């Protein structure tokens, strides 16, 4: 059996590879070729989320968006939270009619959370970078946007807490990083209902708040599909008054008292196991609980305007 002869083409390839490997110009060309095949490593975007000095610091979307728009924000209004003895007192202080779930017969702990306002100056370069990294590559922010003033206002809200809930996290840097402690079996009856009018904002025409909220929702842990479904249900004004859970595993589109809602099932070992959002008659509702998410919609559906205030 005759040994196979080298084909002329193979010999040419070997000579070319040798030249590329053994000569300086060849090595440079070789490196340039492989560099062209590499995918550039994405650069992380640093979003500074401003903290509030009050006791009601939360994971609200307005906080994340404030950090995207500007280097720093100034708090122009920061009302203190006020405990109240009844739903009637909460309604009077908050300025809207409070609605409580009829399915819970145990007395709630009621709190009127203070109104807050933040003001900031747009950092166009920072915001343009965030848009680009968030796949809004076709968005080119006008130069006139740099230095524009933005103000976001969150009205007073009412929080009703039922059952054996974990102790609130201390308003410290370590407390905010670690989050709430792991829930115990005693916390399974804990639910927290928050009611609030939508937030409002003064923004220049060139600033698309819908896009900013989209980025903020994904920063909070939503997938693109979850975020799109969320924004179909809720306006950006409603979203700005919401507090998002620390982690999200899945979502379900549900109906609460005849209006659409979204039930988020969380995946974290800390904090509530679900969060349910819906809006009705100009009020944004958020129900979070430590028990089974199957109880969320029936409990929320028992919240309506026909309940007699104590």
What does this structure look like?
With 310 residues, this protein is of the alpha+beta class. The protein has one domain. The protein is 30% helix and 22% strand. Mean pLDDT is 80; it is low at 11-15, 33-59 and 306-310.
Q: How many distinct helices? A: 10
Give the overall average pLDDT.
80
Q: Numbering strands along the chain, what is their spatial order in the largest sheet?
A: 2-3-6-7-12-11-10-9
What percentage of residues falls in helices of 4 or more residues?
25-40%
Low-confidence runs: 11-15, 33-59, 306-310
Main sheet: strands, sense, barrel: 8 strands, antiparallel
Which term fits the overall shape? globular
Report the sheet-strand fraction.
Answer: 15-25%
User: What's the number of domains?
Assistant: 1
**What's the gyration radius in Å?**
27 Å
SSE pattern? HHHEEHEEHEEHEEHHHEEEEH
Count of beta strands: 12
Class computed from helices, strands and strand pairing: alpha+beta
Write the layout of secondary structure elements.
Layout (H helix, E strand, L loop, with lengths): L7 H15 L1 H14 L23 H9 L3 E6 L3 E3 L2 H8 L14 E5 L2 E6 L2 H10 L15 E6 L2 E6 L10 H6 L12 E6 L3 E3 L6 H11 L4 H10 L2 H5 L9 E7 L2 E7 L8 E7 L2 E7 L6 H6 L9
Antiparallel strand pairs: 1-4, 2-3, 3-6, 4-5, 5-8, 6-7, 7-12, 9-10, 10-11, 11-12
Helix pairs in contact: 1-2, 3-7, 7-8
Short description, anyone?
This protein is α+β, with helices and mostly antiparallel strands and 310 residues long.
Properties at a glance:
310 residues, alpha+beta, eight-stranded antiparallel β-sheet, four-stranded antiparallel β-sheet, 10 helices, 22% strand, globular
């Amino acid at each position: 059996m005759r040994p196979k002869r080298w084909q002329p083409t193979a010999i040419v390839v070997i000579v070319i590879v040798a030249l590329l490997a053994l000569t300086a110009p060849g090595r440079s060309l070789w490196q340039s070729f492989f560099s062209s095949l590499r995918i550039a490593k994405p650069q992380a975007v640093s979003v500074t989320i401003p903290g509030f000095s009050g006791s009601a610091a939360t994971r609200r979307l307005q906080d994340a968006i404030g950090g995207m728009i500007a280097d720093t924000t100034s708090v122009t209004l920061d009302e203190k939270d006020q405990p109240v003895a009844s739903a009637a007192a909460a309604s009077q202080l908050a300025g809207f009619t409070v609605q409580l779930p009829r399915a819970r017969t145990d007395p709630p702990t009621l709190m009127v959370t203070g109104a807050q306002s933040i003001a900031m100056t747009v950092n166009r370069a920072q915001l343009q970078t965030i848009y680009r990294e968030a796949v809004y590559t076709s968005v080119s922010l006008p130069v006139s946007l740099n230095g524009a003033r933005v103000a976001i206002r969150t009205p007073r809200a009412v929080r009703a807490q039922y059952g054996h809930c974990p102790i609130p996290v201390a308003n410290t840097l370590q407390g905010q990083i670690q989050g709430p402690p792991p829930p115990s079996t005693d916390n399974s009856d804990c639910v927290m209902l928050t009611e609030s009018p939508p937030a409002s904002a003064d923004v220049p025409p060139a600033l698309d708040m819908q896009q900013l909220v989209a980025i903020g929702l994904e920063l909070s842990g939503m997938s693109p599909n979850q975020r799109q479904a969320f924004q179909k249900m809720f306006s950006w004004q409603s979203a700005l008054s919401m507090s998002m859970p620390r982690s999200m595993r899945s979502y379900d589109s549900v109906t609460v008292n005849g209006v659409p809602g979204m039930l988020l099932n969380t995946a974290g070992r800390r904090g509530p196991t679900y969060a349910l959002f819906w809006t009705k008659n100009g009020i944004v509702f958020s129900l979070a609980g430590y028990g089974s998410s199957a109880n969320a919609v029936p409990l929320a559906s028992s919240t309506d305007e026909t309940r007699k205030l104590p």
